[in-house]
Amino acid sequence: MSIKPLEDRLVVSPIEAEAKTASGIYLPESAKEKPVQGKVVAAGPGKLLENGKRAEMSVKVGATVVYGKYAGSEIEHKGKKLLIIKESELLGVLEG
Q: Which domain holds residue 50?
C-alpha cells in the first residue's frame, strides 16, 4: 500500500536535524527543533482549475523542500513519520 496525495498536496519525509552541535555536544530529545526540511516522496496531480485543466506542480518527487515548523498534517505510514502538505505551504526548494 502506498500513499497517493490528491490535488496540490505532497507527501514529505522530514529530514531530522543533527543530534550533535558543531562543537560536538549531543542534544537531548527535548532540545531538538521540529524538522523544517524534507524530501518529497509523492506528489499529487496538481490543483484543478476553473477551466477544468490541472495546474502543473512546481515541485517534483525527490526534491528537498523547506516548510514552516507547523505546516501540513503528520501521519505514520509503515512505521515512518511523514507529512502531507499543500504545495502553497512550502517556503522553498533547496537546490544543489
A: 1-8+46-96
The pTM (predicted TM-score) of the whole model is 0.79
- For residue 95, being part of any structural domain is answered with yes
Cβ atoms of 72 and 37 closer than 8 Å: no
- pLDDT for the residue numbered 95: 87
Q: What is the pLDDT of residues 27-67, one digit of tens each?
A: 665 555 666 899 999 999 999 899 989 999 999 999 999 99
- Averaged pLDDT for residues 77-85: 92
> What is the tally of structural domains in the chain?
1
CATH of the domain at 51: 2.30.33.40
Is residue 29 situated within a structural domain?
A: no
